[in-house]
Structures are given as structure tokens and as C-alpha cells.
Amino acid sequence: MAYWVLRSEPDAYSWDDLVRDGATEWNGVRNYTARNFLKEMAVGDEALFYHSNTEKAAVGIMAVTRTWQPDGDDGKWASVAVKPVRPLAHPVTLAAIKAEPKFAELMMLKQSRLSVSKVEPDEWALLLKMAEG
DNA sequence: GCCAACGTTGGC
DNA sequence: GCCAACGTTGGC
């Protein structure tokens, strides 16, 4: 069981869109590091849905429902299927994440442009605590 | 709107 | 294969 952050601009595809759709194919990732993480994902892995740009906060929890399949025509890219699990009671803002010293090593902070990043179990637990506590 | 970070491209 | 130039992204 692994944990991830998946980032999207809410203007392009938001948590509400995902809830409305009931599930989605997380495609369009065109970065090799991010793609490699998509290929690592297993069914049952959980991921935070992070709204970049206008909102800058994690707003919900998703689950991976199918491992990767090719995305695009050239076979270089990958996508996975996800579904919403539940919204966060309190969205965790980027500002709150940056203010917490325990997130110093959080990949999402260290590689701020990466749209798919990994979360360690202890980091995941703390994120959920902040979201639901 | 600007800037920093960083990935990609193209010339050598 | 290296590196400068350029484009894109995300945060401020």
C-alpha cells in the first residue's frame, strides 16, 4: 500500500468533477518522473487530490482502481484509473503544509512542479490528521 | 504579471 | 554528450 499526491488545476479537472464522474482516468501526464510513479501504483493505493494554482490545497482522498495502461499514441506515457473515496473535512493548504516542519522532506514540496508525487506513510498520517482533526 | 525551478530541445 | 536557450508550470 502506497500513498501519493495527484495534482490538477481545478479549472481543468477538479475534485467536484471527479465526484460527479464517480471515477476517472488520470491521464495526460507528460513528465517521466510522474509517469514512473503512475506505473508504480497498485490497486488500493490512496492519493490526495491537490488543487494547484487557484486553490493550492489538498481537498480529497482518492483510491487507485486499476494499474497503469498506455496513454497517448506513442506508448511512452501511462495513466491509471482512480475513484473518489471521501472529501477532506478541512482542506490542507499548501501554506499549512509548508508551515509544518515534519513536511520538510515531502516530495511535493521538494519538487514543486511534479504533478504526481509520493507520500511516505508517516507523512500521510499527518496529512490526514491535519485534514480531519 | 512576474519570477524561480526545472524539463526539453537543438547546436556544437 | 554537453550546455545554453527556451518553454512550461506553479506559486507569490
UniProtKB/TrEMBL annotation:
Gene3D superfamilies: ph1033 like domains (3.10.590.10). Residues 2-130 form the EVE domain. This is EVE domain-containing protein. It comes from Sphingomonas oryzagri.
